[in-house]
Design goal:
Strands 1, 2, 3, 4, 5 and 6 form a six-stranded mixed beta sheet that branches. The chain has helices at 2-9, 15-33, 89-101, 118-125, 135-142, 151-162, 167-181, 186-190, and strands at 40-46, 49-55, 58-70, 76-84, 106-112, 130-133. It starts with a helix and ends with a helix. It has eight helices and six strands, in the order H-H-E-E-E-E-H-E-H-E-H-H-H-H. The chain is of the alpha/beta class.
């Protein structure tokens, strides 16, 4: 932190001050991370971010697990942030179990990445939840079937489908997409 503050802001700060500041907010962070949650979230996004962290003069990759919920009035709410060494379904099971223990009794839709075992981990705690692949991940996985030269164009055409405001418009864009790309990339249409 000391090096970051000096590099970013040109400010020298003593290790004692850094320790004092982090200690003063540590209890508030723990309270926030364990606060009671609503009983129902219609949509919950569960994902991970791989970040590089400097620790004891070495750089390590850690996994940050943010969980974002949409509450019953349609507002986004960060339900929690967890950190681990690697991403895995077992860790996600711990996270959703903690959400349940903090009061979340049901989730209608859980948006996730394609991690193997993820739907089963969610289903263990929330058996009625509909687990869906996040649109960003769906598009990313679909583009694996497309040549590099055409990815940008195909992605724009896919975006027109997902950005449609009405089901009829989305169906029209999907039909146009199938007409344009279906013969060249049938695997995208099937996925």
């Amino acid at each position: 932190m000391q090096g970051h503050l000096e590099e970013m802001y040109g400010t020298e700060v003593s290790p004692t001050l850094i320790l004092s500041v982090t200690d003063s907010v540590a209890d508030e962070v723990k309270t926030w991370q364990s606060r009671p949650l609503d009983t129902l979230y219609p949509i919950v996004y569960l994902d991970c971010i791989h970040v590089k962290v400097r620790d004891a003069r070495a750089v390590h990759t850690k996994v940050v697990y943010p969980v974002l919920g949409i509450n019953m009035v349609g507002e986004k709410e960060l339900l929690g942030i967890w950190i681990a060494q690697t991403e895995g379904a077992k860790f996600w099971l711990q996270v959703v179990t903690e959400l349940k223990n903090r009061g979340v009794q049901d989730i209608f839709i859980a948006c996730v990445d394609g991690l193997k075992g993820f739907p089963e981990a969610i289903g263990t705690v929330y058996p009625k939840a509909d687990v869906q692949l996040c649109i960003v991940h769906l598009v990313r996985y679909s583009l694996n079937y497309v040549s590099w030269k055409l990815r940008k164009e195909v992605a724009l055409d896919m975006r027109a489908i997902y950005a449609a405001s009405m089901a009829e418009e989305a169906e029209q864009r999907l039909s146009e997409f199938e007409e344009k790309w279906g013969a060249a990339y049938p695997s995208i249409i099937q996925s």
